[in-house]
């Protein structure tokens, strides 16, 4: 029998790409999503790519009763990948309770159901935001977690603590937290990708929307950082590469290859790219000229962060493969397809 994996947030950006990769290696996928930040037609698109329509249940994972009813309906789950969360840093500053409730209660409900219904394996979406501005770069997993600069970031830190404590108390549970750096790009089919609501906060959707004419100009937030060209540096990781790491993590847990019951890994390329480098790479690889201007720094931004990926490379046998150029081309193809 195929192993069955629950993917929460599976119609979302990273979730949908992960569903495709899970199906490609033969997992039976069940998606739970309340469609608060994604659309139902993602299911059609997943089916177009993989030839398989995943099972889908639409409800809010904050609702404990519905979550329990779900676990009753699906008694054969082997593992869970928990993507469902709110993720807009700025909105979390304005609506902290909305973020704490959604991101923490969903996790706690799942953990309770995992113990009640004996589902031992969980992969959790964490973030490089837990490192803040690290003292040493590239940042390793043992770098100290810094005080979060937003309620969103804090939900990821608290989630990791909740996981650690829950796993300590329940040795039958196992978790891998994956700390994503900056996920970008889209599936090569251009059938799934990122769907930001309203004006994008993140760099790459803002770039593609500017190039297509939806935004007039990209603002480069600061050119006075202590970096080679003065703009801020991040580790941009292709979303398909990222999705593949989840497939490896879930197998590691199911095959009992994990070395601790709570493990966490950086998922990045290991290479930092500045905002100017991203613009240059986009312009070169797509042939699109970008209208941009330098403005002041954005509040809360760190100067530079990029991953030491050795632990993930060695332990998971995973490595980011796609280049920044090809990833930006995939983001551009996705944007063009969306606006057709
Ligand atoms: P996304 O918003 O595209 O996907 C999240 C999905 O979860 C959406 O489809 C949404 O409808 C669903 N959802 C949210 N709350 C829910 C709830 N209470 N019940 C049911 N469904 C719910 O986001 P994404 O970019 O795919 O991010 C996935 C995960 O990765 C999140 O946990 C996010 O915090 C984390 N992460 C994202 C990034 C990034 O830059 N995209 C970086 C680091 C970590
Ligand atoms: C990247 C760089 C900006 C927009 C965020 C979250 C983080 C994680 C990933 C979830 C920065 C610059 C951006 C623009 C710009 N998400 N920029 N003009 O802030 O590194 O990370 O997403 O966990 O928690 O904080 O990503 O894409 O917003 O910014 O110059 O219009 O691009 O200043 O240097 P960030 P980003």
Task: Give a structural overview.
It is a single chain. The protein is an alpha/beta fold and 340 residues long. It has a seven-stranded parallel β-sheet, sandwiched between helices. β5, α6 and β6 form a beta-alpha-beta unit. The protein is globular. The relative contact order is 0.14. The mean pLDDT is 97.
Topology, pairings included?
Blueprint: E1 4-8, H1 13-24, E2 28-32, H2 41-50, E3 55-57, H3 64-73, E4 77-82, H4 89-94, H5 96-116, E5 121-127, H6 151-169, E6 174-180, E7 182-184, H7 203-212, E8 218-221, E9 233-234, E10 236-238, H8 239-254, E11 262-267, E12 273-274, H9 275-286, E13 292-295, H10 310-316, H11 324-338
Parallel strand pairs: 1-2, 1-4, 2-3, 4-5, 5-6, 6-11, 7-10, 8-13
Antiparallel strand pairs: 9-12
The protein binds nicotinamide-adenine-dinucleotide and UDP-4-deoxy-4-formamido-beta-L-arabinopyranose.
Write a concise synopsis of the structure shown.
This protein has about 350 residues and is α/β, with parallel strands linked by helices.
Strand/helix succession: EHEHEHEHHEHEEHEEEHEEHEHH
Mean pLDDT, to the nearest integer, reads 97
- Biggest sheet overview: 7 strands, parallel
Fraction of helical residues: 40-55%
The ligands found in this model are:
nicotinamide-adenine-dinucleotide, UDP-4-deoxy-4-formamido-beta-L-arabinopyranose
The percent range for strand residues is 15-25%
Count of distinct strands: 13
CA-CA gap between termini: 41 Å
């Amino acid at each position: 029998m195929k192993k069955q994996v629950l993917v929460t947030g599976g119609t979302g950006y990273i979730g949908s790409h992960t569903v495709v990769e899970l199906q490609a290696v033969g997992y039976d996928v069940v998606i739970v999503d309340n469609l608060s930040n994604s659309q139902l037609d993602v299911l059609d698109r997943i089916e177009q790519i993989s030839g398989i329509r995943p099972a889908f249940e639409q409800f809010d994972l904050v609702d404990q009763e519905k979550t329990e009813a779900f676990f009753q309906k699906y008694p054969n789950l082997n593992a869970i990948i928990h993507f469902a969360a709110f993720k807009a840093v700025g909105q979390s500053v304005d609506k902290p309770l909305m973020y704490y409730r959604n991101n923490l209660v969903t996790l706690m409900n799942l953990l309770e159901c995992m113990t009640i219904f004996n589902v031992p394996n969980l992969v959790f979406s964490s973030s490089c935001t837990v490192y803040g501005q690290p003292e040493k770069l590239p940042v390793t997993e043992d770098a100290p977690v810094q005080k979060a600069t937003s309620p969103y970031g804090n939900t990821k830190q608290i989630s990791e603590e909740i996981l650690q404590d829950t796993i300590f108390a329940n040795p039958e549970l196992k978790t891998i937290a994956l700390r994503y750096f900056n996920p970008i790009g889209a599936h090569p089919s251009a059938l799934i990708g990122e769907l930001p609501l309203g004006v994008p906060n993140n760099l790459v959707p803002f770039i593609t929307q500017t190039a297509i004419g939806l935004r007039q100009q990209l603002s480069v937030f600061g050119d006075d950082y202590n970096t080679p060209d003065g703009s801020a540096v991040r580790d941009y990781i292709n979303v398909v590469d990222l999705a593949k790491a989840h497939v490896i993590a879930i197998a590691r847990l199911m095959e009992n290859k994990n070395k601790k019951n709570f493990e966490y890994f950086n998922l990045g390329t290991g290479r930092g790219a500045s905002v100017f480098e991203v613009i240059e790479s986009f312009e070169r690889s797509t042939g699109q000229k970008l209208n941009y201007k330098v403005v002041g720094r954005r509040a809360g931004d760190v100067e530079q962060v990029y991953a030491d990926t050795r632990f993930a490379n060695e332990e998971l046998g995973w490595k980011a493969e796609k280049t920044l150029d090809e990833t930006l081309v995939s983001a551009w193809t996705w944007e063009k397809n969306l606006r057709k």
